[in-house]
Amino acid sequence: NAGVTQTPKFRVLKTGQSMTLLCAQDMNHEYMYWYRQDPGMGLRLIHYSVGEGTTAKGEVPDGYNVSRLKKQNFLLGLESAAPSQTSVYFCASSQGNSPLHFGNGTRLTVT
Amino acid sequence: GQQLNQSPQSMFIQEGEDVSMNCTSSSIFNTWLWYKQDPGEGPVLLIALYKAGELTSNGRLTAQFGITRKDSFLNISASIPSDVGIYFCSGPDYGGSQGNLIFGKGTKLSVKP
Q: For a pLDDT cut of 90, what percent of chain B falls above it?
């Protein structure tokens, strides 16, 4: 009964490096989301997906790309990391308008 | 766009005290959700409200869907140390991303034993 699993849990990158965050859900949810959480800013939507093979931009998409090749996985990529992307990243999934289920986050530091 | 304003931003209380926090919006919501985020973890749904005026409890937690549909309240009775965390209100993003929720900035609760 894993729910939403994010890997890795922590990562440190140097400016300009690239990486991919992986999110996997085992609830057969159609919708998946990537948020970032910064102090005093709450949760802000980066990108989301309403089904396999589809993605869309959220509130703060710049500097990120996503892919949803399989229904259960949603990948978040940073092509060229910047210090402004230091944050905690949360993946979530839902079935339509049902409440979101969140993973436990990935803490990313860009130096 | 839609925004949710939570207050207070933070609270420091003694164990055993009751807690009240609220969430307001300039626009109407048809659903209010309250999440709690424990330190180092992702948000977890506490209570969902779907009808104006609705009052719903989950253990020591009680939430109300305001009659104007522009606000919601969360109360915690007889707080305990494990109530520590950040409490977020949220509602559907009607004007933006399909299926998405928008979140308030959270109320950070600290409980002194």
A: 82
